[in-house]
Specification:
By secondary structure, the protein is α/β, with parallel strands linked by helices. It contains 18 helices and 14 strands. It folds into 2 domains: about 200 residues, Rossmann fold; about 220 residues, NAD(P)-binding Rossmann-like Domain (Rossmann fold, 3-Layer(aba) Sandwich). It binds uridine-5'-diphosphate-glucuronic acid (UGA). Uridine-5'-diphosphate-glucuronic acid binds next to α10.
Amino acid sequence: MSTRITVVGTGYVGLVTAIGLADFGNTVIACDIDKSIIDKLSKGIPTIFEHDLEEYLKRNIESGRLMFSSQIDFSIKNADVVFVGVGTPDKPDGSADLSQIEAVVDAVAHNMNGHKIIAVKSTVPVGTNRWIENRLKTETGSTNFTVVSNPEFLREGRAMQDFFHPDRVVIGCEDESAKEVLKEIYRPLYLIQTPFVWCNFETAELIKYASNAFLATKISFINQMANLAEALGADIHQVAKTMGMDGRISPKFLHPGPGFGGSCFPKDTKAVAAMGKKHNVQMTIVEEVIRANEQQKIRVVERLKTILGSMKAKNVAVLGVAFKAETDDVRESPAIAVVEKLLEEGASVRVHDPKALDNFKKLFADRIEYCERIMDTLDEADCLLVMTEWNSYRSIDLNEAGNQMRGKTIFDARNVLDPESARKNGFEYFGTGR
Ligand code: UGA
């Protein structure tokens, strides 16, 4: 009989995992307490914007391998392996809020009708999987289960592709027979020779945080280097590209911009700092990365003020409000801090985004204007500010843009426009680090 899988949580991690595991040939129930999400997904309607997701979702529903349920008890009872993909948002002190994890663990304890493997995909502070194991022991009075730490490295916007072609799979597992079950579940990845890293819980948990904190560090590093390049008249793109030619450095995650955002880096860097404090270990590098990132967002408005004099009564056209391109997600997007500050400084703001306008509207309501068309955003604007690196912005007709605007300033925080062409069209062009 094949392994029955339940994935609890249908956010980015849970939903992509459920669909991906079903596509590997496993039978999967994706479970979420939010009935409206389950209703949509059961009909094959995606609840997140993600490339290729709809196609994989429909295909696996049709094959009968992927089912959805809002009944947690039923879903756990009918599983040999329970993957946990619920949220771990940050609390005001920076530490991770584990209440959703606790709820799932309690549900597993109450529905333990045979041996189960509990594979934790959510990003959890080091020590959590050990804690889950102890809690299950106490609550069930048995050891007829195995906890496994299986952190996820999906990027929003490329999550399906990342699921099927990961750089590595990390599994913190201290039980040989559970290892065999997981190897079978992930068999298609073995066949394409994906590296599997087997380790203890703490190592698996820390690999996840260390990876995200390191990538965030690269970004803050290149952002500060870009600020220095500006002051010195150097071109950060050539600097970053050439640094990246050194195999030890790699050119990835060296794109300067208005700071990192999203649901992961800001939360995970704060969690690393909080773990350091809790265990009395200096995490000054990560603390500085967080600080530098906050500064980088504010710096956008500070520079605009130097360029335009004051922001009072200035019309600013913000292109891009998603935290990065190819997503509709605005969580911790640098655009939030920037728009907030622009309004505080007395500017009027119009925003455009190919996918994220609805989500941004939930935050700013009628305090700003929202435009479906790029050129409408630019109407009578004093400044065009690029905040997200959407491809469609690379080919903006700058001649038309110039005719539409009342000012001639471009601040390209993501360096997506061609400075030469901007200047040829009469703009004063400012980028990040060039
Ligand atoms: C990140 C990691 O890349 C994933 O490996 C990880 O699984 C995920 O967090 C998670 O923990 O769940 P994601 O948040 O989707 O994925 O976004 P990234 O593509 O990593 O970008 C994060 C932020 O950094 C964005 O705001 C992006 O614009 C910014 N960034 C990225 C830069 O400013 N410069 C760069 O060179 C790269």
